[in-house]
Amino acid sequence: MDCYALKAIDTQSRSIDKAFIAPRTPTESTLAKIWAEVLNVKNIGIHDNFFDLGGNSLLAVRLLDQINKQFEGDLPLSNLFLNQTIQI
């Protein structure tokens, strides 16, 4: 079984009840670019859930590191678990 092919199919699908909504602000756009790079996904909408798109704890650490560098902040990892989308 080709697990990588299954993951690629799964990460491209969206929940039927949530239509794709593109980032609306500069901050959401920046976050979407970081998420896309970390998750290896082309388009990130404001309602897309990090973990539903294939995110895991190791990718979460990498994601937060990049976000903290980009925004010169120090967000805790728990922030991602409380806010699993880029919607602001």
TrEMBL record:
<dbReference type="InterPro" id="IPR009081">
    <property type="entry name" value="PP-bd_ACP"/>
</dbReference>
<keyword id="KW-0596">Phosphopantetheine</keyword>
<protein>
    <recommendedName>
        <fullName>Carrier domain-containing protein</fullName>
    </recommendedName>
</protein>
<keyword id="KW-0597">Phosphoprotein</keyword>
<dbReference type="InterPro" id="IPR006162">
    <property type="entry name" value="Ppantetheine_attach_site"/>
</dbReference>
<dbReference type="InterPro" id="IPR036736">
    <property type="entry name" value="ACP-like_sf"/>
</dbReference>
<dbReference type="Pfam" id="PF00550">
    <property type="entry name" value="PP-binding"/>
</dbReference>
<feature type="domain" description="Carrier">
    <location>
        <begin position="22"/>
        <end position="88"/>
    </location>
</feature>
